[in-house]
Design brief:
The chain has helices at residues 179-196, 216-223, 258-273, 289-313, 350-356, 359-379, 386-393, 407-413, 418-424, and strands at residues 7-17, 20-27, 33-39, 44-49, 52-54, 68-76, 80-87, 91-98, 105-112, 124-127, 135-136, 156-162, 200-204, 228-233, 246-250, 325-327, 339-343, 398-400, 437-439. By secondary structure, it is α/β, with parallel strands linked by helices. Bound molecules: zinc ion (ZN).
Length: 444
């Protein structure tokens, strides 16, 4: 067989679970074959991937509360990649490949092994399956009951990145209002709203008034096991009259508007103010082939998330543009983490600055952003989450009518029909009102 280009590992993350931890490796395509086995003295899990390379360094993994002590990699048999997970005690390892949901992935469940001799786990080699067919390698965990125990369904994790911080104040509005303070306040409101909602959990990338270089922000989100990252800003524009909220996703090519270009340049300068080098000019991982290959699926999710958030924000705020704009923001350049940048308003506009400083408006903005996030995940819930389970099983799903909703947009969002919605809710007619809660019928 002719040699083909190597498979690329584009992302890795470690998520603590009740039974131990889950290591997720994402690829541009599934490796031709892989092998997972455990070794002892010292305890470790070895993952061999045929014809595979790292697109980026594995980075450090969040290991608190798990038996995982670290992760390292090396070349194996010339063209292969060996990943070694170092453990502080014996664990079993079970691999599942997923090809269906956008990004090909290998999930390795690491389960604490508390008793019995430190028997070596069976070694299994499997071929890459056809698209969409999960294939598990031995040893298998005990079959999970249906529906799965609540603890087995993980929360969707939202990383919230409050822009600027520390020596970088961001934009400064009339009365000396600082963007870094406004966006941290909104971010904390947003975290509160997310954490109160079952099935969701939020992590703040920055929790106080200090600076984090732009390229490190997605890395922090990834280490926390985030499914998406929201960067929160409240910027200035050279036209004082500019007003309204905007949502941005990454563009590799050119900015979709003059404002988008101006803001991207401003935000990217943040690294210079913050005292670090401009990483986006130096990081080879942010350029070229790797991004082109890997960004598409992530960007599609970012654009869908962005349009839902923008629509939801339209109910509490004027919009600057009715569409998600695209520009080259460094903080959005994650090949494997859907990310959007939310401009909550222009701090350079005196009226808007007044609203942005108001706690009530901050809370309404946070609520609207989260409504948009929920609408995105109602359609695209990550596998293994409680929200995905609810979508499949129609258990307890409700939708609160927002401005702009119609029965047909709601039906589309939940994969049901207008007639079913009317029947399920005992509606007299197709008339709905803002704030009304609809019960969503199960989809199967
Ligand atoms: Zn900003």
């Amino acid at each position: 067989m002719p040699a083909t280009a190597a498979t690329l590992v584009q992302g890795s993350r470690l998520i603590p679970t009740d039974a131990g931890a889950r290591l997720e490796l994402s690829f541009d395509r599934l490796p031709a074959s892989h092998k997972i086995f455990t070794l002892d003295h010292p305890d470790r899990v070895v993952i061999d991937l045929a014809d595979t390379k790292l697109a980026r360094a594995l980075g450090t993994v969040a290991t608190a509360g798990t038996a995982v002590r670290g992760i390292r990699s090396g070349v194996h048999q010339g063209t292969g990649l060996r990943i070694v997970v170092d453990l502080s005690g014996p664990m079993t390892a079970t691999g599942t490949t997923l090809a269906a949901a956008g990004q090909p992935m290998l999930q390795i469940e690491l389960h604490n092994r508390n008793r019995g001799p430190a028997a070596r786990a069976a070694t299994t080699a499997i071929q890459a399956p056809g698209a969409g067919q999960p294939v598990a390698s031995a040893p298998r965990p005990p079959p999970s009951p249906s529906p799965p125990a609540r603890g087995a369904q993980r929360d969707i994790v939202i990383a919230i990145d409050a822009g600027h911080g520390g020596q970088d104040p961001g934009a400064i509005g009339p009365n000396g209002l600082r963007e870094k303070q406004v966006v941290l306040a909104i971010s904390k409101e947003l975290k509160g709203a997310i954490d109160r909602e079952p099935g969701y959990r939020a992590v703040l990338v920055r929790t106080g008034d200090y600076f984090i270089p732009l390229a490190q922000r997605p890395a922090i989100a990834r280490r926390a096991g985030a499914d998406v990252m929201l960067s929160i800003h409240a910027d200035a524009f050279h036209r004082v009259g500019a007003h309204g909220a905007s949502v941005y996703a990454l563009s590799q090519k050119r900015a979709t508007s003059e404002t988008a270009k101006y803001l991207a340049e401003r935000e990217n300068r943040s690294d210079l103010i913050g005292g670090s080098v401009a990483l986006h000019d130096k990081d080879p991982m942010l350029a070229g082939v790797i991004l082109d290959l890997s960004m598409t699926a992530t960007l599609n999710h970012s654009l869908h998330l962005g349009s839902q958030v923008l629509t939801a924000m339209g109910s509490v705020n004027k919009l600057h543009k009715n569409q998600v704009e695209q520009a080259g923001f460094v903080v959005l350049k994650s090949p494997d983490l859907p990310s959007i940048l939310v401009e909550t308003g222009f701090i350079s506009n005196p009226q808007e600055a007044g609203r942005l400083a108001d706690a009530g408006h901050q809370r309404r903005l946070a609520g609207a952003i989260f409504n948009g996030v929920k609408r995105h995940f109602a359609v695209h819930p990550p596998d293994g989450t409680r929200i995905a389970w609810q979508r499949r099983n129609g258990s307890g799903r409700t939708h609160v009518i927002d401005r702009g909703d119609t029965l047909s947009t709601i039906a589309e969002q939940y994969d049901t029909s207008v007639n079913q919605l009317i029947r399920h809710n005992g509606l007299d007619s197709a008339v709905i009102r803002v704030g009304q809660t609809l019960k969503i019928p199960g989809s199967s």
